[in-house]
Amino acid sequence: MEFPEGLKYSKEHEWVLVEGTSATIGITEYAQEELGDIVFVELPEVGEKIVKDDPFGAVESVKAVSDIYAPVSGEVLETNEILPDNPETINDDPYGDGWMVRVELSDIDDLKDLMDADEYAEYVAQQKEDDDEEEDEDEDDDEEKDEDEDDEK
Amino acid sequence: MALKRTPLYAAHRRAGAKMVEFAGWEMPVQYRGVIEEHLAVRGKAGLFDVSHMGEIEVRGTGALDFCQRLTANDVARVQVMQAQYNFLLNPQGGVVDDVIIYRVKPEAYFICVNASNIDKDFAWLARHAGADVEVENQSALYAQLALQGPAAQDILQALTAQPLAALKSFHFAFADVAALRCMVARTGYTGEPGFELYCDGAAAPRLWDALMDAGQSRGLVAVGLGARDTLRLEKAYPLYGHELDDTTTPLEAGLEWVLKLAKPEFFGRERLVEQKQHGVTRKLVGLEALEPGIPRGGYGVFKDGVKIGSVTSGTKSPSLGKAIALAYIASAEAVLDRRLEVEIRGRKIPVKIVSLPFYRQ
Fold first, then answer.
1. Which residues of B touch A58 (CB under 8 A)?
2. Strand runs (DSSP E) across A1-141, as ranges?
3. Pairing relationship of beta strands B194-200 and B180-185 according to DSSP bridges
4. Is there a contact between B2 and A39 if contact means CB atoms under 8 Å apart?
5. Cβ-defined contact of A63 to B29 (cutoff 8 Å)
6. pLDDT recorded at residue A37
7. b/e sequence B166-176, b meaning 16+ C-beta within 10 Å
8. pLDDT, position A150
């Protein structure tokens, strides 16, 4: 999976587009895929202060609620008004029409903790590998069992 | 401890399923997406792997009396080759499990139980069985597939000589499907016409493939547990562990139709007769959100700022496009159309009581 170059990324799978002293925030392709069909989005109010690493909203899939964590601190300038009626936009276009909030950054240094596209791609690849490794180990066990059964025949 | 896998695990991985843990099993929660799978079942057909569910056989000269004593419904009405929705009850009238009983022989009843309750139900039945009854846990022998939707019968008929149009609701037959021996039952948990097929675990992968092939031209898709839950919730079918547990009675759950109080003797009879006379203190109701927000299991239900109950299950209904929920609330408040509130992560959103089921074809 590749990720847009011009964005910065958090460990909680949010992306940040920096524009001067403000930033737009959303969730990544990897996050929307993991969540499945998004049916509801909870966003902060304009004027609210969001705090880095604290939850500032939620996305709900059919089955479950997932908090979204602030990748940076700041004051909410704008929220994406199409999301209440069309939450699935996040699934369809997570980096474009699926943007969630725009904030006025309170501390430009917050950006230092974020990853660039290559680092995030590696991070996601590692997460997927960890999941696959567990599956592969179990499958190897199953294969060994099958082999033993064949020997017995 | 490693999660259990059904014989269809490899098929699910090949189909790109997202797997999750459920009742100690690794099961597919979705393939293409919960909403798409849900709508496919309502509009065409869906195939579910429900092999994690359990099968317990009760047989012997005392089988009928035993089943009568331990359950809510009247098992004497069940003919051979007929099935019945029923509850195992405890002496307090609470539900040990909701089950489907199949009378496979005059003195043999095959009981399909929830995956989360297999060991509990088997221990319960074995403990109460007398010398004239044999109780056997056969769960390891069987796989189970559910084929549900308006196109289900056409798809299945292409694979069997058994005349399906003549198979009535809650009846079953032993038949060859794709040359594999199955117990084919006209039962289901989606509210759509359909079948549940029991077969040998070893035959399951071939049966799955045969059904998927036969169904391809009719829009058949694989469906996971995510859509299984949204489908049953739209029809207000209970899910054990949510709407039903050891402390809930059939009367509180609004499932009085399953309970036959005229039966002379069964676990919980006294308590249930009393409850019927005096009325229940809590009732299961359907809620519809009036503002954006989705009530979820465990959220509190409020009236004028006072907590009067809790949500048992909730979701955004794919067929209705609304947030729906089931909840136990104080009986006095269980009035159609009443406005209440559900607390969703610190905010109270308005809901109203609606009639059930939420979705009707």
1. 345
2. 8-9, 14-19, 22-27, 38-42, 49-50, 55-61, 65-69, 74-79, 101-105
3. antiparallel
4. no
5. yes
6. 94
7. ebeeebbbebe
8. 44
Pairwise CA distance, residues B162 & B212, whole Å: 19
pLDDT at residue B361, rounded to an integer: 84
Q: Give the CA count within 13 Å in the CB-facing half-sphere of B224.
A: 27
Predicted local distance difference test score (pLDDT) of residue A136: 60
pLDDT means per 10 residues, chain A with 153 residues, are 93 96 96 94 96 95 92 97 95 97 96 95 89 60 48 41
Q: Using the 8-state DSSP alphabet, how is residue A136 labeled?
A: H
Whether omega for the bond prior to residue B357 falls within 30 degrees of 0, making it cis, is yes
Partners of A74 in the beta sheet? A50, A105
Count Cβ atoms within 10 A of the Cβ of residue B28 and give its class: 0-12 exposed, 13-18 middle, 19 or more buried: buried
Among B13, B38, B239, B345, the strongest candidate for a mutation testing the A interface, having the largest count of A CBs within 10 A, is B345
* Among A87, A99, A80, residue whose Cα is nearest residue A39: A87
- Residues near B109 by beta carbon (within 8 Å), at least 6 away in sequence: B57, B58, B59, B63, B64, B67, B75, B78, B101, B102, B103
Alpha helices in chain B (DSSP H): 9-14, 34-43, 63-70, 118-128, 152-157, 204-215, 225-234, 269-278
Residue B342 φ then ψ, to 5°: -120, 135
Tell me, what's the pLDDT at A120?
A: 96
Q: Does B226 touch chain A (CB under 8 A)?
A: yes
Structure tokens at B272: 């249930």
Predicted local confidence at residue A147, as pLDDT: 46
Which residues in chain B show pLDDT less than 70? none
Mutation for testing the A interface, residue in B3, B9, B34 having most A CBs under 10 Å:
B34
**The residue count for chain B:** 361
Q: What is the pLDDT of residues B98-130, one digit of tens each?
A: 999 999 999 999 999 999 999 999 999 999 999
Element (H, E) at A151: helix A117-152
For residue A63, the model assigns a pLDDT of: 82
Assembly ipTM = 0.79
Contact between B85 and B97 under an 8 Å Cβ cutoff? The reply is no
- Which residue has tokens 């109270």? B348
Q: Residues B245-288: pLDDT tens digits?
A: 999 999 999 999 999 999 999 999 999 999 999 999 999 999 99
Q: Which residues contact A60 (CB under 8 A, 6 or more apart)?
A: A38, A39, A40, A41, A42, A66, A87, B294, B316
Residue of A nearest to B228 (CA): A63
Q: Please list the residues that pair with B223 across neighbouring strands.
A: none
Q: Count CB atoms within 10 A of the CB of residue A1.
A: 11
SS3 assignment, position A88: coil
In 3D space, the residue among B154, B142, B239 whose CA is nearest the CA of residue B190 turns out to be B239
Q: By the CB < 8 Å criterion, does B221 face chain A?
A: no
